[in-house]
Amino acid sequence: MPDGLAAHADHGHAHHPALQHHFQTLDQQHEAATLGMWVFLVTEVMFFGGLLMAYLLYRVWYPDAWAEGSLDLDAVLGGFNTVVLIASSLTMALAVRSAQTGARRATVGWLLATMALGLTFIGVKVIEYAEKFHVNHVPGANFVYEGPHAQQVEIFFSLYFALTGLHALHMVVGVFLLSVVCWMAWRGRFSPQWYTPVEISGLYWHFVDIVWIFLFPLLYLVDRAGHFA
Amino acid sequence: MTTTVLPHVTYLNVSTTLASWLLTKDHKRIGILYLIVVTIAFVIGSVFATGVRIELTTPEGDFVSADTYNRLFTMHGVIMVFFVLVPIVPAVLGNFAMPLMIGAKDVAFPKLNLLSWYVFVIGFVFTLAAMVVGGVDTGWTFYTPYSSNASNSNVLAMGLGLFIAGFSSILTGLNFMVTIHRMRAPGMTWFRLPLFVWALYATALVQILATPVIAITLLMLVVERAFGFGIFDPRLGGDPVLFQHLFWFYSHPAVYIMILPPMGAISEVITCFSRKNMFGYSFVAFSSLAIAAFGFLVWAHHLFVAGISPYSAMVFSFLSFAVAIPSAVKTFNWTATLYRGAIWWQVPMMFACGFLGLFLVGGLTGLFLASLGLNIHLHDTYFVVAHFHYIMVGGAIMGYMAGLHYWWPKITGRMYSRGLATFAAVLVFVGFNLTFFPQFILGYLGMPRRYHVYPEEFQVLNVLSSAGASILAVGYFLTFAYFMYSLWKGEEAGANPWLATGLEWTLESPPPPDNFAETPVVSEGAYQYSKREIKVA
Prior knowledge:
The complex is a heterodimer.
Chain A: H1 5-8, H2 26-61, H3 63-71, H4 75-100, H5 104-134, E1 137-138, E2 142-143, H6 150-186, H7 196-220
Antiparallel strand pairs in A: 1-2
Chain B: H1 18-22, H2 27-55, H3 66-101, H4 110-132, H5 155-182, H6 195-227, H7 240-274, H8 281-295, H9 310-338, H10 347-370, H11 372-378, H12 382-412, E1 414-415, H13 418-445, H14 459-489, E2 491-492
């Protein structure tokens, strides 16, 4: 067969404690897990895609409201969070690298750094949300806005909260995931032969970062340079 | 006849405690768990359908009120679509048979497989709870603003229930896709795969790419209702037609989630009982992928009267006609497989032949609806109801019946009564046609769907339809009865009662817990029937 078994049938990892009974080799198990995570990320793209479709439609319909709403967001905090997440992608990549080379303490350290950066992001997000509550920019129950496009700006904020809220939820899940992996790394469960959990939670983490790379300009930078007005 | 104890260790008798079932990671047991829940859902959905058919036997609204009627057809649709048709073949038959067919010990992620079942059950319980406290009256499509501000029913709870159940479908699709990529036995190349596996692969593609979109759409609906976010509500500046686009972006491909796996089962049955290799194997395999791909490009044919631009309507009409091509490729290839085959007239084959005829009618009437001019005349009439029941019940459920009768001896190790099963097949076929064929005429004459009263001149056809539904119900009940009876009193089936070629038939019936003691090595294609001795009983 083209992939999986035949190519690896004689590698002899059959007694590795991490090998599950229904797989023939660790390589097969690793390939299955990695493919599974990639497929899962495809479903995530479609999941965010539905919301981004709504974003696209209303941005085309209500460009002025989008420009106004966007100016109400704090681009400095958003920019800071963007830097934080990009840095966390670097520490995550270093954690995977450390796991590959069997450096246990470095793996734990880089995972802790990644989690710290993730928590920093979530903390800044909480500050931003609190500010929106404070100035009554929460759509639905608590929305006060003066101006000709008040209703459309409310849709902008609906989508802002939906998109960033869903993203923040993914961050929380990511931090939880990394804490489990970190504990496993601390217990010395990984080796250069088997470090699949580190790698696939890294894939997930990078994906959540990339979502933010799209969300930041779509939400914070709509009309900063005045092109749309 | 006495009950005999099966001598070998099987996945059924290896342990028999309740915990061993509820915590099982064995794909075969998880298939059984799905079978139980889906059967319960089928019964509940049928009860709602019975309410609808009783109301429609008379022109007046004398059995239930208009409001109750709205809830009946909504809950019938929700249960049957999301908890019966979507999981019935992949999660029941696919879970049981697919790993066996590719020579694997299990699916790639057994724990995730069990989790999918629990997620499914939680979604089901949520949905049932929404029904018990009063139900939903929006129609199964949840169109805004029916569902956002015009409905005072339990849209919130049901939306959450379907959101949760959607993840079960996504996770099953993910699991199957990885399993088919990574778990095939040595020598089981892509073009030696049984066509059921190809069909499940195409289905997994749709589950992975389409289901997340309905999940986020339902979530937006829930958020809109719960917090007053304005996304679909026109009073808040939102666009209700956006909901229809997003909804059908999933729900049209979902039709292929429902029909592709039964099509795969039909391929297994037709080759086995024609004792022939599949005519045009690779065409049938690729037509599954083509249906999955085209299926993503036709959603707006549900919106022809919703005010979309005539140019996009033309494109979507054309693309909808294009889906007929891979579907016809399958139908022609099945027919060509039957041609000059040694037809073995067993029960699965009867259901498969029923499928061929009913799917043909359902498919061709789909072309009527894809035509822009006719669509305006037939939109939201009983013609549409008849069309999709021919596909969903005549196609998907008949295909499921064919598959279940085919694999039942492997699943249970027991044979059902051939005489009763033949009788049931006839009842289901006759009852189905009597139920739904009059609805084509009703729709053509102008009877709209979703009304509990109708003009008196439609009564004769409606009475015929309700009479057919009772025959259909007897057919299904009979099937349930002889399957149950066979568990205790059925003859032992033996490893390969149909003399079929798949890897699953090389194992004892029921199979041992770990499937293959030694991983099989495959050296030939899936349907080498012509090379084998034919022993037609």
